[in-house]
């Protein structure tokens, strides 16, 4: 029983360390159609990137509209279960 308390403390510490080291997936431009050529202002993606904060391990990407709609439908299906 005396061994389980230090073990639990170490496990909690490891979990906290992993939670602080998580990387994020960032949708470029903040919306699904932002990867396309901007129609109004050519510097809009530069402005978005300047206002965003990136960290080591983050990945930038774009979700095609088909996949984003599919993901939305699947997420709503799982919420109903």
Description:
- The chain is mainly alpha-helical and 81 residues long.
- The protein has one domain (24-80).
- The protein has helices spanning 4-20, 44-51, 65-80; strands at residues 25-27, 59-61.
- A two-stranded parallel ribbon has the order 1-2.
- The chain is flat.
- The N and C termini lie far apart (40 Å).
- The model has no long low-confidence stretch (mean pLDDT 66).
Summarize the structure in short.
This protein has 81 residues and is mainly alpha-helical. It is built from three helices and two strands.
List the topology elements:
Layout: H1 4-20, E1 25-27, H2 44-51, E2 59-61, H3 65-80
Parallel strand pairs: 1-2
Keywords: Signal
Signal peptide: 1-23
Number of domains: 1
User: What structural class results from the helix and strand content?
Assistant: mainly alpha
| SSE string | HEHEH
- Please give the count of helices: 3
Level of helix content? Answer: 40-55%
- General form: flat
**Strands ordered across the widest β-sheet:** 1-2
Radius of gyration: 20 Å
Count every beta strand, where a strand is a DSSP E run of 2 or more residues: 2
Major beta-sheet overview: 2 strands, parallel
Please report which band the strand proportion falls in: under 5%, 5-15%, 15-25%, 25-35%, 35-45% or over 45%.
Answer: 5-15%
Query: What is the mean pLDDT?
Result: 66
Q: What is the end-to-end distance? A: 40 Å
Low-confidence stretches: none
């Amino acid at each position: 029983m005396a061994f389980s308390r230090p073990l639990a403390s170490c496990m909690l510490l490891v979990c906290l360390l992993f939670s602080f080291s998580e990387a994020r997936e960032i949708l470029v431009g903040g919306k699904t159609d932002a990867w396309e050529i901007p129609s109004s202002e050519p510097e809009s993606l530069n402005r978005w990137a300047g206002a965003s904060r990136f960290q080591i391990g983050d990945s930038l990407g774009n979700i095609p509209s088909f996949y984003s709609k599919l993901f939305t439908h699947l997420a709503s299906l799982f919420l109903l279960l």
